[in-house]
Amino acid sequence: MSKLLESYAAGRWYTAPDEGTPLLSAVDGSEVARISATGLDLGEMVTYAREVGGPALAKLTFHERAAALKALALTLMAGKDEFYALSTSTGATKRDSGVDIDGGFGTLLSYASKARRELPNDTVYLDGAFEQLGKKGTFLGQHVYTSRRGVAVQINAFNFPVWGFLEKLAPAFIAGVPSIVKPASQSAYLTELVFRRIIESGLLPEGSVQLLSGSARGLLDHLGGQDSVAFTGSADTAATLRAHPNVVGEGVHFNAEADSLNASILGSDVEPGSEEFDLYVKQLVTEMTVKAGQKCTAIRRALVPSALMDDVIAAAQARLSRVVVGAPDAEGVTMGALASIEQRDEVLKSLRGLTKSAQIVVGDPDNFDVVGADKATGAFLPPILLRSDDKDATEPHDIEAFGPVSTVIGYDSTDEVIALAARGKGSLVASLVTRDSALARDIVLGLAPFHGRVLVLNRDDAKESTGHGSPLPVLVHGGPGRAGGGEELGGIRGILHHMQRTAVQATPDILTAVGNKWVTGSQRNDDGVHPFRKNLAQLRIGDTIVGGPRQVTLADIDHFAEFTGDTFYAHTDPEAAAANPLFGGIVAHGYLVVSLAAGLFVEPNPGPVLANFGVDNLRFLTPVKADDSLTVTLTAKLITPRSSADYGEVRWDAVVVNQDGDPVATYDVLTLVAKGEDA
């Protein structure tokens, strides 16, 4: 008997007492492993996540969690050869395994990098600027994101046993929420191997990740309003889970990614033989054959101008004729097996439905060659392309054959192709191949309400494009309607899915304390020591320096205009400037004001401040005229140590006022400041 997969629950590996269900190789039908969760205490897993994993993650800042993810990704990448070797049993070629395995590790690295760059080195995230709720500025509002005190349950599909769980794990982990990973049984042996290496690494806090190998029946019974479920799979299963009493009545957060009849559109401006035509056909064939077409983002409907249907089919046939089906590790094989015999049979069943209104024009499911394996025992199918000439047919827009199957459908107008794409009732992705910008606008805006992502492809972006079927960590992955109505990934958005947004109403001082970011109106600290003489360990939020006044003369304005070449009439032509209703005379350059302000607060000697690396949110509010006097107040607003460097970032609030106290400029100054011993 083969190995019985284990679950990792409540800090230990758990082996079920029964023999489990056999998991068979997609290539030859041999037994790869067995799976069972019999006797596993699912309630204990949920409790352990909440009481052990959650508190452990809560002690870490966003940056510390990101550092752990980065270290984990690098560790897993160093040992990926064993994952590739086992991946062949799922039917995956080396190219397929790269999409799944390297794609998963790359997602961890992407989230780690995104979190370090865009999130504070803290456990709370501020959503936007504060809102002034009273006239005097003593009563403010601020939206804050904090980690939910629950568990993120991840129910994954069979087609991506590595990427599928890592793309859900990464944002939840950064958000400070522990995860329970439930892989689809068919390919769970690969998930279990990767997960075992995660636990062995010791890089993630105990309780922050757990693995459920086997049935999840009853798991949702233990969830409540602080918990979430992220599901990838069929629409029927998603509907069943969505109707669970705890989802309906207890407020369990539910996100689904379900069936999707994705479309790829060939623009009406494209001619046979052009680069765009070749790009379209190449992309279609790629999406039919990568992972044997078992991708939720694969192209199921190829929408092409009616006059070009024959050309597209002929070009696709030429490419598909070069596809070699067989054992993933056999020489020359370019497309492997489907995940299981059962999955192959499901595709054949769907194919029978599609042929009610379409005809097979490329590929024969009953007559094809297999290299290095026996198609009687392996889950093999050839790439199959259909043609539908019936504009009223429903099957191509209703039936998804989750394998190497796509249907070519003709259209005769822009409005018609948009309507055809929308008949999929909501999809994860659509693509459009065109160089016509006006056409692209019309189609993109027509597609957008029905799709989570739209790719516009042509010769100008082809070399850098990641393709129709590649969800990216920094962009949202999901879609409306039939596609599940959910949303995953999306960079920081994916992290915030796991956090609670709360509106806090309070005084400026309280909001400063809650968010660790200085808020206008809260206390400033001027202790007589120039803030630029303080290292990161000594500096405190609210530390302030006031510089000025400094009179701006007409000679200053003339010199700045001559020196910089900025001779805009408002700075150089008294008569024209006087006619300008906004100025009424010569005014100083905005950047002259900023430059003079810097001279009022900069401490010139070498010290902890290493560099100025930018200015954010610059606004010029009141024109500065000759002989006006400027005073600047600079306040430490946000302090962010960098974990991987001996310095950190400091954001300073800068306000420049004139002699009447009117603000003339506001902005944030960004500096790099050396750490002290305790920073």
From TrEMBL:
CDD domains, A to Z: ALDH_MaoC-N
Xref: Gene3D superfamilies: Aldehyde Dehydrogenase, Chain A, domain 1 (3.40.605.10), Aldehyde Dehydrogenase, Chain A, domain 2 (3.40.309.10), Hotdog Thioesterase (3.10.129.10)
Highest taxon above the source species: Bacteria
Stored InterPro entries: Ald_DH/histidinol_DH (IPR016161), Ald_DH_C (IPR016163), Ald_DH_N (IPR016162), Aldehyde_DH_dom (IPR015590), HotDog_dom_sf (IPR029069), MaoC-like_dom (IPR002539), PaaN-DH (IPR011966)
Domain spans labelled MaoC-like: 548-636
A Pfam family the protein falls into: MaoC_dehydratas
GO molecular function (one): oxidoreductase activity, acting on the aldehyde or oxo group of donors, NAD or NADP as acceptor
Domain Aldehyde dehydrogenase as annotated: residue spans: 21-443
Keywords: Hydrolase, Oxidoreductase
Entry similarity comment: Belongs to the aldehyde dehydrogenase family.
PANTHER family: ALDEHYDE DEHYDROGENASE B-RELATED
Protein name per UniProt: Oxepin-CoA hydrolase / 3-oxo-5,6-dehydrosuberyl-CoA semialdehyde dehydrogenase
Organism: Rhodococcus koreensis
